[in-house]
Amino acid sequence: MGCAALLLAGVSVIVGCRAAGTDGSTPVPQLLAFLPWLLVPTGAALLCALLARWWTGLVWGVAALGLLAWFIEPYGRISEPTGAGLADVRVLTSNMEFGRATASLVPEIRRHRPDVVFVEECAYACQATLERDFTGTYPHRQAVRAGGSRGSLILSRHPLHGTAGVPGTMGMPGAVADVRGHDVRFQLAHPVPPLPGQLGLWRRELGRLRDFAAADRRTPTVLAGDFNASQDHAAFRRVLDTGLYDAARLAGRDRTPSWPARTARVIGAQIDHVLVSPDFSARHARFLRLADTDHRALLVDLTLHQRT
Questions:
Q1: Do the Cβ atoms of 224 and 246 come closer than 8 Å?
Q2: Are 293 and 96 in contact (CB under 8 A)?
Q3: Which H or E run includes 297?
Q4: CB hemisphere CA count around 148 (13 angstroms)
């Protein structure tokens, strides 16, 4: 009975925070990223309660299991645009882990030929390599020039007009693209991770991304990158609540893990996202394994639609 009670108490704290719409304090935000995997300790607790004939524990476990099943469902409602298609846009986002995966990203860009590439943790050498190798293919770019994890880069086939981006500890450049005569906001996302001691900063930087999304709901928007958050984090759901949709969900891949890449086939969390305004539909989403990075890249095929 003691083992079951301990497991259920831990699970209940995490599920309770999810139900209350709060990310709580360490270790709750870190564990919320792996919410679906809490089915394992919950199932173990139910088995222990059954073997011990602890009926209160069985009821408790079933209730926790029901809440987990509810929250594992995709967050929010979505709707498909009804207007005519105006342009297809292929988007790739990838975290380079301090630039180490640059050599792995180059052939993937050549293979998949995205229209816009969002590159996080792309330091000086990473940016120099990508800009040199794709000078003709991606003549338009917007960057935050910095070392380590702070550097970021947007490569685009479409003309870009640079914006101030979103302020953050790590670079989050932004631009307005001319996509076949239509303005589209491109914004890279890379808030700090929810590590102990910097949860407040994590919430503030996700809040700035939310403010960006809410500031202009008329211009088609693509907000992509490493959010260091999943749909089970309240701070991330507030970004979605501005009216953005997760392209992976639109394409039926809403729970596919992107991090950590080495264990993503077994256990992981989807913290890399391409969020789009309701002007877009998504046909396909693929998570690509790159060497030398702890993130899987995300490739999505979007269609920009006319507003009705």
A1: no
A2: yes
A3: strand 297-305
A4: 4
Cis check for the bond before 260: say yes or no (omega within 30 of 0): yes
- Structure confidence at residue 1 (pLDDT): 66
Beta bridge partners of 184: 177
DSSP 269: B
Q: What is the mean pLDDT of each run of 10 residues along the chain (308 residues)?
A: 84 95 96 94 86 83 93 88 95 98 98 98 98 96 96 98 97 98 98 96 98 97 98 98 97 95 91 98 97 98 94
Q: What is the pLDDT of residue 50?
A: 83
Q: Which two tokens stand for residue 269?
A: 């969390």
Rg, Å, the chain Cα set: 20
Single-letter amino acid code for the residue at 45 = A
- Tokens, residue 241: 């609540």
φ/ψ (deg, to 5) at 89? -135, 120
What pLDDT sits at residue 4?
83
- Residues in a beta bridge with 95: 120
What's residue 110's pLDDT?
98
| DSSP annotation string for 6-74 | HHHHHHHHHHHHHHHT---STTHHHHHTTGGGGHHHHHHHHHHHHHHT-HHHHHHHHHHHHHHHHHHSP
What sign results for the dihedral spanned by CA atoms 227, 277, 220, 304?
A: positive
